[in-house]
């Protein structure tokens, strides 16, 4: 019997589930925005520190497109200007690098802008 090829969607979903489980150790609530067609895959909320992360998950750094990165940078700038009773809103990118998942601000990535 021939092995079935795993689609990009399935592969991406697996990475999102894995990262979601990692984030649950730090955050009170982690939501997956499946099917939303938004720029974010996950939203993580920590009630005590009053932090909300809007997260785009990628399997690796090369997977992010220039247009997508520019959109995330714009959203990060908009969130910096938005204050909701002391709640810190931020955009994060998470992807695997050297065998570990790492968190980045869109402005930490160079070469794509």
Offer a quick outline of the entry.
This protein is 28% helix and 28% strand.
Describe this entry's structure for a reader.
The protein has helices at residues 8-23, 66-81; strands at residues 29-32, 42-46, 51-58, 88-97, 100-104. By secondary structure, the protein is α+β, with helices and mostly antiparallel strands. It has a single domain (8-108), classed as Trna Endonuclease, Chain: A, domain 1, CATH 3.40.1350.10. Strand 4 and strand 5 (100-104) form a beta hairpin. The chain starts with 7 loop residues before the first helix and ends in a 9-residue tail after the last strand. 18% of the residues are buried. The mean pLDDT is 87.
- Strand count: 5
Low-confidence stretches: none
The overall pLDDT average reads 87
- What percent of the residues sit in helical stretches (DSSP H or I)? 25-40%
Q: What's the total helix number?
A: 2
SS-based class: alpha+beta
Round the Cα radius of gyration to an integer and report it.
Answer: 15 Å
- Give the neighbour order of strands across the main sheet: 1-2-3-4-5
Could you spell the SSE succession in H and E letters?
Answer: HEEEHEE
Which CATH class applies here?
A: Alpha Beta
User: What is the terminal-to-terminal distance?
Assistant: 46 Å
Which CATH architecture is right? 3-Layer(aba) Sandwich
Q: Using the alpha-carbon principal axes, give the shape.
A: globular
| CATH fold-level assignment | Trna Endonuclease, Chain: A, domain 1
Largest sheet: 5 strands, mixed
Instruction: Please state roughly what percent of the residues sit in beta strands, choosing from under 5%, 5-15%, 15-25%, 25-35%, 35-45% or over 45%.
Output: 25-35%
Number of separate structural domains = 1
């Amino acid at each position: 019997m021939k092995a079935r090829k795993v689609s990009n969607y399935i592969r991406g979903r697996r990475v999102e589930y894995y990262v979601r489980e990692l984030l649950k150790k730090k955050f009170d609530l982690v939501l997956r925005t499946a099917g939303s067609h938004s720029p974010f895959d996950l939203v993580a909320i920590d009630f005590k520190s009053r932090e909300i992360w809007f997260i785009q998950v990628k399997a690796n750094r090369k997977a992010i497109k220039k247009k997508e990165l520019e959109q995330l940078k714009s959203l990060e700038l908009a969130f910096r200007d938005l204050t909701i009773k002391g709640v810190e809103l931020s955009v994060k990118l998470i992807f695997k690098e050297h065998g570990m998942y790492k968190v980045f601000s869109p402005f930490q990535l160079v070469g794509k802008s």
